[in-house]
Amino acid sequence: MAAPWLRLGAERLFEMPAVLELLSRSNSTSQAFAEVLRLPKQQLRKLLYPLQEVERFLAPDRRQDLHLRIFDPSPEDIARADKVFTVTEGNRIDYVSSAVRIDHAPDLPRPEGHTKKMNFFKVGKHFTVVDMPGYGYRAPEDFVDMVETYLKERRNLKRTFLLVDSVVGIQKTDTIAIEMCEEFALPYVIVLTKIDKSSKGHLLKQVLQIQKFVNTKTQGCFPQLFPVSAVTFSGIHLLRCFIASVTGNLD
C-alpha cells in the first residue's frame, strides 16, 4: 500500500486529496463551528482533541508516553483557524494545476483516483496544498525525479504530512517515507487516519506503538500525533488549527 503524503509550504505547502476534502468541507466550517462549541463537554473533547479522549484509558504512569499537549490550542483559537478553511466569495479553495516536475505545471483536469502527479490547491491567499503520490508499489515510475527532487529543492515548504492508517499502523512503505524525511531533514507530522474504524482499545494500542516509534526512531517528526476521522470529523478541527499555526495564519 502506498504511503500518502501531504506537503505544506508557504507558498505555503502540504499534501493529500482526502484530507484536503476534509479540511475544506463547507458544511463543517465556521458557520457550524459555533454549534460545535455548544456540544456537551465530553462530546466536544472527543471531536476536538481525540487523543485526550483515549488518554483517560491509560494508567497515570503511561500518560507521559504520549505528547498530547505540545500543540494545545483553545477552542477560540480553533474557531479562528476554521475561518481559514471556510469557503466564501473572498476565500476560495481551488484546484490549480498538476505537475510531473517542479518546472512542469500545466493546467489539467482535476485527477481522479490514485495520485500520479503533484496536484496544487490554493487555500485562499493563505497557502498552497500540494497533493503528492504515495511511496509504495503503486508509486509512479518517475517518483524519484518528481517527489524526491521536489522535497529536496523547495525551500518555502512549511511542513510535510505523512498519513498513516491507524487500523494497521506503520507499514514498510511508511518507514521508507519517514526515512526520506529524516534524510532530507524535513520537518514532518504523522496524521493517523480512519480512527473511527477501530475500537478504543485497538486505537490506543496503535497510538502507543506509533508514538514509541516517533519518540525513539525519528528526529524531524513533530512529537504529537494527529488522529483524524473522515466519517466523524474527529480531530479535523485541531489539524486545521495546526496548519493555520505553522503557516502563520493564527497570529
Q: Can you offer a commentary on this structure?
A:
With 251 residues, this protein is α/β, with parallel strands linked by helices. It has a domain at 30-85 and 135-247: 3-Layer(aba) Sandwich (Rossmann fold). 35% of the residues lie in helices and 18% in strands. Mean pLDDT is 79; it is low at 9-19, 26-31 and 104-115. The protein has helices at residues 17-24, 30-36, 41-48, 50-55, 75-82, 143-153, 172-183, 200-217, 236-246; strands at residues 3-9, 93-99, 118-123, 127-135, 157-165, 188-193, 226-227. It has a 7-stranded mixed β-sheet, sandwiched between helices.
Briefly characterize the structure.
This protein is α/β, with parallel strands linked by helices.
Which percent range fits the helix content? 25-40%
Order of helices and strands: EHHHHHEEEHEHEHEH
Q: How can the largest sheet be summarized?
A: 7 strands, mixed
Beta-strand content estimate: 15-25%
Shape: globular
* CATH third-level topology of the domain at 30-85 and 135-247: Rossmann fold
Name its key features:
globular; Rossmann fold; alpha/beta; 7-stranded mixed β-sheet
SSE arrangement:
Layout: E1 3-9, H1 17-24, H2 30-36, H3 41-48, H4 50-55, H5 75-82, E2 93-99, E3 118-123, E4 127-135, H6 143-153, E5 157-165, H7 172-183, E6 188-193, H8 200-217, E7 226-227, H9 236-246
Parallel strand pairs: 5-6, 6-7
Antiparallel strand pairs: 1-4, 1-5, 2-3, 3-4
